[in-house]
Automatic annotation (TrEMBL):
Nucleotide-binding found in the keyword field: no
Catalytic activity: a di-trans,poly-cis-dolichyl beta-D-mannosyl phosphate + L-threonyl-[protein] = 3-O-(alpha-D-mannosyl)-L-threonyl-[protein] + a di-trans,poly-cis-dolichyl phosphate + H(+); a di-trans,poly-cis-dolichyl beta-D-mannosyl phosphate + L-seryl-[protein] = 3-O-(alpha-D-mannosyl)-L-seryl-[protein] + a di-trans,poly-cis-dolichyl phosphate + H(+)
Pathway membership: Protein modification; protein glycosylation
Gene3D superfamilies recorded: 2.80.10.50
GO CC, alphabetical: endoplasmic reticulum membrane
Membrane topology value: Multi-pass membrane protein
The protein's name: Protein O-mannosyl-transferase 2
SUPFAM superfamilies cross-referenced by the UniProt entry: MIR domain
GO molecular function, one term: dolichyl-phosphate-mannose-protein mannosyltransferase activity
Annotated spans, Disordered: 1-59
Chief location of this protein within or outside the cell: endoplasmic reticulum
Length: 698
């Protein structure tokens, strides 16, 4: 072979020696590691791709990661699919996502605060495995009976089974250490929380599959990265966190390329454009395509209609606005229904019932009602030419809105001026499309749906007020939905249907507002982000008392506390390594390799954990324990990297780690696979003595 081929062959042999860590035995029996030359150490810091035409003889150690990966996959599948059909009733959020899968099968439109990909895949899995979409998913505990639900659970379990192999490959690529990769995978295989989340009809295993797929693709398979990025965001908006992680990693790569003086600016520009196309344009296109499929499939009127604008509803078969005809512009003498533009703002409504004594004026109630009703009809007529305004019943800084007068005769407090939002005086009001507000002539306040629910005397409908704050918000914006005026010509509403981009934009506005509106209800448990890393409290998936089949979402405490300890240990090791490097301390062989792994591979995993955890501290919505699991994936991989064999901390610990994980998995496995009989505080319980924290509710 020529000189270059010989040099390349030597480098690959040296790199292989570092990666596979061929061991030897000293006279005392202690395990030792080969001491590579300086050329070997330099070659270990980067992976040198195999040259075309180059042949090398595979050593026995080359097969070790493959055999280990197969073992990881088998164990992962077994732990996820064991008792997959148990319990045979609805558990926790299956009542939501199973129902939404049914909506896709029935093509019935619904609203959810998350993007649609996860529900589309659940519905597709159910359809392909024989589920007909007829089970109602009313509440947790409802028995599935003859309905074919196992396919949707199996689909989620299949994606959940991919997480440990993904972790193995990621850590192997970052650390070049099979023991480190095996530790990371084992933490996920034997974690009771990961098993529980993977066994039910939920979005979490789908989300985590795409998050881990994104990280794996970023390290090994760039051609599939755009699919995983769009998939992460297409399941939940928290997929933005892994997109940010990939973006930061890409920015570092581009910065390094910019510093490579052998690379021309033209070539650098090509690299930049390739990343813009592959990491922005393609994922955005696929993400948009997901919504196109969503709108095409869900073309029938359903429970989600009321969350969207009247123009949006006109697209849905079975909605009263679909293919309807009515006058295009408002005029005096028109009978209309008026819909508020906030989420679940409702239709402007009035009924015969009066406000009770002591709640403002004892006059007819005006509310917002979420359903179509005859009492939603209003008449527009000219003004005919005040009394003291009264506070609204719930929102005290607003004024009360009532119905007053007999047979259409009242006083000057009945006068409202209709204005087109963003328009000018005299602009016509178009049905469905125009956003309008109603300005009270006497007080200059604007008609508002506060979003607050009235007590029983208000039939638990939505409060309508007159807001003194005239800034335009969805609460004070309305649109005309139904329009009856025999003196005007009708048009088909099909000409007013929104475009795809308008529908896409409206869907995102509604989802974002819906997410921000998820506040804790009275007496509802609201988990705190600081609870999560310490495994402070889990979630009941099924059952409460001794006679019920109980499943409790709780991470294996040994694994979670080990991850927490490893985070602190990693920061300490990273600090020591950074100081040593800054002081010019000479490191050779495996210490140099592990230092590189800590600073680059481990640093990226730490950043992934931070990005998937810290944002929850500033979120105003209600939070749950399961929100931490994407971050837990990164902390588990970081633990594997920290306790790799090259680390002085991980030397010889692998057998002990594996044994302990198996032992504690056996002790806590009833949390995932279900239990009946006495509760944990009873000595006869299978979980007796394992309730180590008072906050655990099993």
């Amino acid at each position: 072979m020529d000189g270059k081929q010989k040099e390349h062959y030597t480098q690959r042999q040296d790199t292989s020696a570092v990666r596979h860590r061929k061991t030897c035995k000293t006279n005392e029996g202690a395990e030792c590691l080969p001491q590579p030359s300086s050329e070997t150490s330099n070659g270990a810091n980067k992976r040198i791709p195999k040259r075309a035409g180059h042949l090398s003889s595979p050593s026995r150690d080359d097969h070790v990661p493959v055999y280990t990966l197969v073992l990881v996959l088998v164990l992962s599948v077994c732990t996820r699919f064991y008792k997959i059909t148990e319990p045979p009733h609805v558990c926790w959020d299956e009542t939501h996502f199973g129902k939404m899968g049914s909506y896709y099968i029935n093509r019935t439109f619904f609203f959810d605060v998350h993007p649609p990909l996860g529900k589309i895949l659940i519905g597709l899995a159910g359809y392909l495995t024989g589920y007909d979409g007829t089970f109602p998913f009313i509440k947790p505990g409802d028995k599935y009976e003859h309905h074919n639900y196992w396919g949707m659970r199996a689909f989620c379990a299949a994606l959940g089974s991919c997480l440990p192999p993904f972790a193995f490959l990621i850590v192997l690529e970052l650390s070049h250490s099979t023991p480190a990769a095996l530790i990371a995978a084992s933490l996920l295989i034997f974690d009771t929380g990961c098993i529980t989340l993977s066994q039910y009809i939920l979005l979490d295993p789908i989300l985590m599959f795409f998050i881990m797929g994104s990280h794996l693709s970023m390290k090994l398979y760039w051609s599939s990265l755009w699919v995983c990025l769009s998939g992460s965001l297409g399941v939940k908006f928290v997929g933005l966190f892994v997109i940010l992680l990939v973006g930061i990693n890409t920015a570092f790569d581009l910065w390094r390329l910019l510093g490579d003086l052998s690379l021309s600016l033209l070539d650098f520009g090509k690299h930049l454009l390739a990343r813009v196309f592959g990491l922005i344009m393609l994922p955005l296109f696929l993400y948009t395509t997901i919504f196109a499929v969503h709108f095409i499939v869900l073309n029938r009127s359903g429970p989600g209609d009321g969350f969207f604008s009247s123009a949006f509803q006109s697209r849905l078969i079975g909605n009263n606005l679909h293919n309807a005809s009515m006058p295009e512009y408002l005029a005096y003498g028109s009978v209309i229904t008026v819909k508020n533009l906030r989420i679940a703002g409702g239709y402007l409504h009035s009924h015969w019932h009066l406000y009770p004594e002591g709640v403002g004026a004892h006059q007819q109630q005006v509310t917002a009602y979420l359903h179509k009703d005859y009492n939603n009809l209003w008449l527009i007529h000219t003004a005919q030419e005040s009394i003291t305004p009264i506070p609204s019943p719930l929102t005290k800084k607003h004024l009360q809105v009532t119905g007053y007068g007999i047979n259409g005769s009242g006083d000057v407090n009945d006068l409202w001026q209709v204005e087109v939002c963003g328009g000018k005086k005299g602009d016509p009001v178009k049905v469905l499309r125009s956003k309008v507000r109603f300005l009270h002539r006497s007080t200059s306040c604007v008609l508002c749906s506060s979003g607050k629910t009235l007590p029983k005397w208000g039939w638990e409908q939505v409060e309508v007020t007159c807001s003194p704050y005239v800034k335009e918000t969805p609460n004070t914006q309305w649109n005309i939905e139904d329009h009856i005026n025999p003196k005007l010509p009708n048009i088909s509403l099909s000409v007013l249907k929104p475009t795809f981009l308008e529908v896409l934009w409206e869907s995102h506005i509604v989802m974002i507002r819906g997410n921000s509106g998820l506040k804790p209800k009275d007496n509802e448990m609201n988990s705190k982000p600081w609870h999560w890393p310490i495994n402070y409290q889990g979630l009941r998936f099924s059952g409460v008392n001794e006679t019920e089949y109980r499943v409790y979402l709780l991470g294996n405490p040994v694994i979670w506390w080990l991850n927490l300890l490893s985070l602190a240990l990693f920061v300490l090791m990273l600090t020591v390594a950074s100081l040593a490097k800054q002081r010019g301390v000479k490191m050779e062989g495996m210490r140099k390799v592990h230092c590189h792994t800590l600073m680059e591979g481990g640093g990226m995993l730490l950043l992934g954990w931070l990005l998937h955890y810290l944002p929850f501290y500033i979120m105003g919505r209600i939070l749950y324990y399961h929100h931490y699991f994407p971050a837990m994936l990164f902390s588990s991989m970081l633990t594997g990297t920290t306790y790799s064999r090259e680390s002085i901390w991980g030397l010889g610990c692998l057998p002990e780690v594996k044994n302990n994980l198996m032992n504690f998995f056996y002790l806590f496995h009833p949390l995932s696979y279900g239990m009946r009989g006495p509760l944990a505080q009873d000595p006869a319980s299978s979980m007796a003595g394992l309730r180590w924290m008072e906050s655990w509710e099993f």
